[in-house]
Design a protein that fits this description.
Elements lengths: L3 E5 L1 H11 L29 H9 L5 H8 L2 H6 L4 H25 L6 H9 L3 E6 L5 H8 L4 E2 L10 E4 L7 E3 L25 E3 L30 H10 L5 E5 L8 H10 L5 E5 L5 H6 L5 E4 L17
Parallel strand pairs: 1-2, 1-7, 2-4, 3-4, 7-8, 8-9
Antiparallel strand pairs: 5-6
Helix pairs in contact: 2-5
């Protein structure tokens, strides 16, 4: 039986959002506009993060990913009387709570007729691992629905099944119990500076997602991966890279190939055997990605409706 690996980007969430219509209120390209309530105050979430809100207000007409890029720009932040490190910290917490709300909405609206759900269902016994750059839990919701076992090196998760590597963090990650004790966390974060600690993580269940985190685990858009050598990332990456050496197919689903992600994606590509067929599931494959895989076997699935051919049938891999 041939083996299939998955490398997942925001395009998967965009596909589900379009199919389920939740993108009308939760556009994954514009999270700063989401109507999410703060778990501490009940007010609009972004209002509990004054530094991030100021950055947003000053740049409201810009693409949201570009706004997060400005959070990383120390000189720009200083020019509008902001501390870049504080904006980044607030961004991590904002994204964690916002995408927690989004993940619960995805789970509650998961449609078994969604083309990607049907395709994964048809091929679940052949999937040997997944690598996701998303914070949300859409892929996990699909795997759970299909009774597929997986883990991401959390201390409280049954370490069976396939690797699900989330090197940029996930909304269900929190530092493990007993690591750092600073009492009950509340937003706004007046005196909270807990970030970038390389310590064990635990997995939160769905009933505990909408609470302030001791440490949020989200690499913000356009940020180079500061977690790459962490104890829950590096071993998972190594495990995934060892598994894909036996893959017959590797699907890159909705990968934008941002410059800040290329080192990680290129490492996956370079770990694939030459006989492996690369499949690009993207209506607009990035030119730089196509250049990277030049000379290798690849297919492009460019339908806006997911992994289906011109006749409306699911693609079938031998």
């Amino acid at each position: 039986m041939s083996k299939i690996s998955l490398v997942v980007g925001n395009g998967l969430s965009m596909s589900f959002g379009a199919q389920s219509k939740i993108n009308h209120t939760f556009n994954s390209q514009e999270p700063l506009k989401w109507n999410v309530k703060c778990p501490s105050t009940g007010d609009l979430l972004i209002s509990s993060f004054p530094n991030l809100k100021k950055l947003f207000v000053e740049n409201e007409a810009k693409n949201h990913f570009d706004i997060f890029a400005l959070a990383l720009d120390k000189d720009y932040c200083r020019s509008i009387s902001l501390d870049s490190s504080q904006v980044i910290l607030e961004s991590r917490h904002f994204l964690t709570i916002a995408f927690s709300e989004y993940s619960l909405l995805q789970k509650n609206n998961l449609d078994l007729d969604w083309s990607w759900f049907k395709w994964i269902s048809s091929n679940k016994s052949r999937i040997n691992g997944a690598f996701s750059l998303n914070y949300d839990l859409l892929l996990e919701s699909v795997f759970d629905k299909l009774a597929m076992t997986y883990h991401s090196l959390q201390v409280n998760h049954d370490r069976k099944g396939i690797p699900l590597v989330k090197p940029h963090g996930s909304v269900d990650f929190e530092i493990a119990d007993g690591m750092i004790d600073i009492g009950k966390i509340q937003y706004p974060m007046t005196n909270l500076f807990i970030d970038e600690n390389d310590i064990p993580i635990k997995r939160l269940d769905s009933d505990n997602l909408l609470y302030p985190r001791t440490q949020a685990h989200c690499i913000i858009p356009n940020e180079a991966n500061k977690y790459k050598d962490y104890q829950w990332v590096k071993p998972a990456n190594n495990w995934f890279e060892s598994i894909i050496k036996t893959s017959n197919y590797c699907l890159f689903i909705g990968i934008s190939y941002f410059y800040c992600d290329r080192i990680e994606i290129d490492k996956i590509i370079d770990s694939l055997p030459l006989a492996c067929t690369i499949i690009i599931a993207n209506p607009s494959p990035p030119k730089e990605f196509l250049q990277k895989i030049k000379g290798r076997k690849y297919l492009v699935w460019d339908s806006l409706n997911g992994p289906i051919d011109e006749s409306g049938k699911l693609y079938n891999l031998k």
